[in-house]
Design a protein that fits this description.
It is a single chain. With 194 residues, this protein is mainly alpha-helical. It folds into 2 domains: 37 residues; 128 residues, Cytochrome c-like domain (Cytochrome Bc1 Complex, Chain D, domain 2), CATH 1.10.760. It has 8 helices and 4 strands. The strands form 2 sheets. Strands 1-2 form a two-stranded antiparallel sheet. Strands 3-4 form a two-stranded antiparallel ribbon. The longest helix is centred in the N-terminal third of the chain and has 32 residues. The radius of gyration is 28 Å and the shape is elongated. It starts with a helix and ends in an 11-residue tail after the last strand.
């Protein structure tokens, strides 16, 4: 780069910097004149009660938040065949891209309410939160039955799900550092001290 071109580049950058400084200074002056505060300007608005309620969909491990409704193993099979086999396969265990639902439910969940919550929030994959409570209760009944946790005539509802003890429940506990979140000791994300 020749000396003349280098001087022009430096001058261009100085003029651009001066323009930016003048723009910022004038914006601050205008803000000061109309009494607004650019630094602490609120963004958005407070959420309404109905907006908060729409996001408050969690089901607690003790069953708090479970909706009214019920479902059976037989109803769960029909729903599973219609909405779940594409991803999880006909018996919930043969899809090579999936870790399988059967028999992992027995080992992965501390309580049935957590299984309900997961299905409610996440399934089916292509349309999460589209299942009705009766459909979710039916799927939970089916999956618990496939894992030999409940009998074929089990009826899942808010009361019966709270009463079922999962096989690995004793290996989970309340973590005092996380507001009562249930964790499995030894998990990589666990807050247990070594």
């Amino acid at each position: 780069m020749s000396g003349l071109n280098q001087k022009r580049s430096i001058m261009t950058m100085l003029f651009a910097l001066a323009g930016i400084i003048l723009f910022i200074a004038s914006a601050v002056e205008v803000a000061a004149q109309d009494g607004s505060n650019l630094v602490n300007q609120p963004v958005g608005r407070d959420a309404s009660d109905s907006e908060i309620a729409a996001w408050d969909i969690d089901i607690e491990p003790d069953g708090t938040g479970l909706p009214a409704g019920s479902g059976t193993v037989a109803q769960g099979r029909k729903i599973y065949d219609a909405k779940c086999t594409n991803c999880h396969g006909p018996t919930a265990s043969e899809n090579p891209g999936d870790t399988g639902i059967n028999p992992n439910i027995a080992n992965r969940y501390c309580c049935t309410t957590t299984l309900y919550d997961y299905i409610h929030r996440s399934m089916p994959y292509y349309a999460p939160q589209s299942l009705e409570p009766d459909e979710i209760y039916s799927l939970v009944a089916l999956l618990l039955n496939l894992n030999d946790i409940v009998p074929e005539d089990f009826v899942a509802n808010a009361t019966t799900l709270r009463a079922v003890t999962m096989p690995q429940a004793a290996n989970y506990g309340i973590n005092p550092w996380t507001s009562g979140v249930i964790e499995q000791p030894g998990d990589p994300w666990s807050h247990d001290k070594p």
